[in-house]
Amino acid sequence: MNPWRCEGPAWRDGRPTLAWASRTGGDRVRPLAFGGPLAFRATGERRCAGVRRAGRRTWCPHDAEIPAGRTTARCPSCAALDRSSSVAADTALDDPRLFALYLAWFGPRLVKLGITADVRGPARLLEQGALAHSWLGEGPLAAVRRAESALGAALDVPDRISARVKHAALAAGWDPARAAADLSAAHARATASPSWPDTVTPRALSVADHAPAYRVDPAGPPRPRAHVTALAPGAVVAGTLTAVVGPYAHLDRPGGPLLVDLRLLAGWPLTAAAPDSAVTAPSRPLPAAPEPPPDGLF
Asked: Which residues contact 144 (CB under 8 A, 6 or more apart)?
């Protein structure tokens, strides 16, 4: 029996990886190789991944089974435990680390505000699939969280952008110069806003382009013909890895490009499959790409 279970995607040092865990063997991380095969078979059953906080893991006491199509591999009780001390859920009230406020760019008219622990660097931006970003400010968690809320309202900049809109903007391609201009304009508006709190220190504009990390051309990657919607016992996914944008892997296959949300792998024991194997995981054709939002926000 394979004791290792996939924990899904993670960005480490600017590179996409898959994380793994075992009750007997601990944790490990394996980089994903662009231009190489990504081929695996799901085995056994999908089980709850438990909770990792402050570098320590709490295994699910119920070893709960997780539905195949979920993008999170936590049972309700472990999800509640995770949210009880979470920056994302705004329940981590005493985190002493330095936090950074950022502007993330997903395409024209698609700029959002967010925060991340400074020690994580750009990992949070890469996890979301942002095409470019700039740091905006830094400070204690509570101050940076208040700044995110106040500036978002003052500048009418959201803190969430849907996956469907992100996919549409990526497929349409983008101009890195436009990304830099939009981020520069948003940065100037934010730092000059009366809503900027004194408890947050501004950071200078520093535009970072994520296309090299994702291995995508700003003209847009080949549009996938289908996307994997779930795994199942015995299901196979196989192809050549051409790009990873956020949690989404782009695979080249003889029948056309395939999109795989790597979060669907979390909780599964996986074994290697032949790179030319037929894909038997549940999938469906992608709908026609919607039009990206109109130009002119900044």
From this structure: 99, 100, 101, 115, 137, 138, 200
61 phi, psi to nearest 5 deg? -70, -20
pLDDT tens digit sequence for 240-293: 999 999 999 999 999 899 999 999 999 999 999 999 999 999 999 876 655 555
Please say whether the beta carbons of 235 and 283 come within 8 A: no
pLDDT confidence tier of residue 54, bands split at 50, 70 and 90: low
> pTM (2 decimals)?
0.91
Q: Residues 223-237: pLDDT tens digits?
A: 888 999 999 999 999
User: Using CA atoms, how far apart are residues 17 and 29, in angstroms rounded to an integer?
Assistant: 6
**Tokens 């906080």 appear where?**
53
Cβ atoms 36, 17 nearer than 8 A: no
Q: Is 295 exposed, middle or buried (0-12, 13-18, 19+ CB in 10 A)?
A: exposed
**Cα 137 from chain centre:** 22
The full 3-state SS of the chain, as one line of letters, equals CCCCEEEEEEEECCEEEEEEEECCCEEEEEECCCCCEEEEEECCCCECCCEEECCEEECCCCCCECCCCCCCCCCHHHHHHHHCCCCCCCCCCCCCCCEEEEEEEEECCEEEEEEEEHHHCCHHHHHHCCCEEEEEEEECHHHHHHHHHHHHHHHCCCCCCCHHHHHHHHHHCCCHHHHHHHHHHHHHHHHHCCCCCCCCEECCCCCEECHHHHCCCCCCCCCCCEEECCCCCCCEEEEEEEEEECCEEEEECCCCCEEEEHHHHCCCCEEECCCCCCCCCCEEECCCCCCCCCCCCC
